[in-house]
Amino acid sequence: MSMEGTGVRAESTDATPRETADTDDFTVLSADAGARTLAHFAHPRADTETALAIVSDPHVSTGKEGTWKVFHRTEERLRAALADATAREVDGVVFAGDLTEDGRPEDFAGVTDLLGDLRIPAVAVPGNHDVPKSFKAHETPPLSTFEDRFTPGELPFRAAFGGVDVLGLDSASAPDGSLDATHAGSISAAQREWLDAALAESDAALVVTHHNLPGLGDCFGDESAVPHPPVEGAAAFARTLARHDALHVSGHVHLPAVTRCEGATGVVCPALSSFPQAYTLLEVGPDGTTLSLVPVADSEGVAEAHELARTHSARSRTVSEVVADQLSDLPLADERDR
Question: Which domain holds residue 218?
């Protein structure tokens, strides 16, 4: 199947067999099983071998329990991911949004504490749960506080790790307040202009937002069944990415996938908080880019997360089924020879 349009898988272009796994056997999705290849891409490429830990949707909660996001394990899971990334000697940690359960000050403090001993540089883009919303009963710190804590200065940002430029954009909030009453996302024209100029100056770029490009309809059987709509302004955003052959990384929907839009390639990362509780290892070198799923829970933890997702709601059950389907036949894409 071609990856053009809304397809999420591509036939391998070499003789490498796909990994298959029975995802009812939670051992194969546990930390003991190790990393599994999600996708290979011809670009970006870098002369300097560079590794990044992409952590998406940790949803850290310092007091809440339950739900399919397994809030009572979130601090433990983030601690494990950071320890694993440190042991792998990655060049940086990149958060693709939703660092906190729902933007509560105490949960931001929990994330800050967990990052306090990290000896690897880390940057983050905000998710819809990290920014002030009009419908929240509690007060969420302003975006400027997020920028002070988790970005090199302000959004959008450019951060160099090894041979790769990470370009972080804010898809979760808007200066005019248009996103204050929704969990939807948008990329403004000003950010697209900034991105176009930044990509023109970069030889190997990874563009990170919380919200996704279009293309998840095939995963759910119907575009209308996707739990969150794609980022507003996606077509213009994707055309900017495609002009520079940049790889886009996002989170938000709690599942691994590869999408195509207007010639741009997007990778949707699995969530650290929900089944199967993993981060994404991204490795860039002269031959291209490889992304791998790195589980951080033991088999009992994976089983717990799966059961909570299966029973919490119709939506969480559907997402867990899509996750299992995506992980049953890897890699999702192999385009190294294109």
Answer: 19-335
